[in-house]
Amino acid sequence: MNRSIFRWSARSAAVLAAAVLAAALLLALPTRRDMPSSPAGTTPAQVSLIDITSADIPRDRGFYEHSFGWTLKADYPNYPIMAAGAGPDIGIAMLGNPEAGPLEPLYRIGKYIVFFGVWDIPATLRRAEALGGKVTQPQTPIEVGGTFAMITDPVGNTIGLTEPAGTAPMPPTASTPEPATLVAISTPDVPATRAFYEQLFGLRLKEESPGYPILTSGAGPDIGIARADDPAAGPAEKLYRVGQPVVLLQTPDIAATLATIGRNGGSTFQSEVSLPSGGAYAFFTDPSGNTLGLLERH
């Protein structure tokens, strides 16, 4: 594919204060029995939750419900969780939320926090450090069960880890055609960052355009390793920055989706662009100023 598209307290600094946010993390987790073992001995990790920061939660919740058909999965104070079809759940988080404690700087308009569900957080943290990453939030209990942690990869991207407790089945999610289908992680060193995520999470190569490998766990959205600040991205170049994942949503009809976005208070950031391999992409901006992509596959 053309690489031009790809590109969380107050109780203690180390203990999660907001049980509602913790419960939301747990709700979004895959169960242990849903997480198959990989031949390499690691468990392939899939994205289980993406947080979008909002300046007006009721407004933005309505925007995504009406634009993409997402439905409410859980409603916590200042943090609704939306079921986004076959993709990971989407949390709409309050801008500047003091409950986030030391992680509050991560919650900014235009940034997205991506959480990977893993089998064993301690092992994943050890592997991350051995691969050159850093632990920025140690394994922390969630009051309703399970744990979470945060790491930073060698080039400075911060991601979350979540580990479920037990194997109770998860509630079903709605079936809509608008899931998150790709998360792009930007880096100045594509081969090294690709190797980090492959070895950390057991991801495997799905496809590769020049300079833009797309990795997969076999479930959840794919992970694109994009060159940061690549001028080939055109108007979307400024979106591809280290520490700022790019989220693309699948849609069967970009033109119709952009029209719906406009009617619901969003705007087109980059109009539809055809892909040589078939399909198309575009970017839009939501009412709070977050810019996400649309991806139409043929």
UniProtKB/TrEMBL annotation:
CDD domains: SgaA_N_like
Residue intervals of the VOC domain: 46-164, 179-297
Top-level taxon of the source organism: Bacteria
Protein name per UniProt: VOC family protein
Species in which this protein is naturally found: Nocardia acididurans
